[in-house]
Amino acid sequence: MFILGLTGKTGAGKSTVSSLLKERGCYIIDADKVAREILFPDSPVIEKLKETFGEDVVKYNGEVDRKLLAQRAFSSREETEKLNAITHPVIREKIIDEIETAKIEEYEVCVIDAAALLESRIRNDCDSIAVVFAPMDVRLKRIIERDNMSVTDAKRRIDAQKDDEFYLRNADIIIINDGETDFENELNKLFNFIESKKGK
Q1: Is 53 helix (H, G, I), strand (E, B) or coil?
Q2: Starting at the edge strand that comes first in sequence, how are the strands of the sheet with 2-8 ordered?
Q3: Which of 30-39, 71-80, 100-109 has the highest mean pLDDT?
């Protein structure tokens, strides 16, 4: 089974590409979904989040206040790294379990859709890395519209991620999604890349 890591900076359009790969019959592991699943009440992860980001990031009923956690965790690159250090090892365990499920179900291609893929050990579980790329002005506009976020908060979230060069130099294939480049052509390039890797 070919395992593709799919990543890109916030607002680049990674989720769109992931949905289209699912339509093509790929098994999709959504790291964001896995991250939500590990935040159950009484989880050891929650205790570490409270210690690092403040008691109030967890509501009285034991649920994580995701908006407040995101505000604090994405306020700087250092804070984002603290969040990653707490959550990544647990997320990776769950992802490895899902990879095994995909193998048992005899999928030819498994896609790990993860924003922080390159900063985590999950990248070592992938055969190739695909990066969805869009310039900052395009991403900024998308984030503001998608998350109903202020320009300041959107910029802060973008700045909490590594720079463009980090993503591009770690990519085995790059999908341009800037609103001008022929996106259909970019997708076909990705599909052909996956076909060339299947069964190897």
Answers
A1: helix
A2: 27-30, 109-113, 2-8, 128-133, 173-176
A3: 100-109
Q: Tokens for 181?
A: 């480049």
pLDDT in tens, 39-78: 887 788 999 999 999 999 999 888 899 889 988 998 888 9
Burial 35-64 (b: 16+ CB within 10 A, else e): beebbeeeeebbebbeebbeeebbeeeeeb
Any idea where the domains of the chain sit in the sequence? Answer: 2-197
Q: Which fold has domain 2-197?
A: Rossmann fold (3.40.50)
Nearest to 84 by CA among 68, 73, 72: 73
Kindly state the DSSP code that residue 177 receives in the 8-state scheme: -
The answer to whether the predicted template modeling score (pTM) of the entire model surpasses 0.85 is: yes
Which residue in this structure is represented by tokens 């050990």?
A: 121
Say how far apart CA 18 and CA 44 lie, in whole Å.
Answer: 30
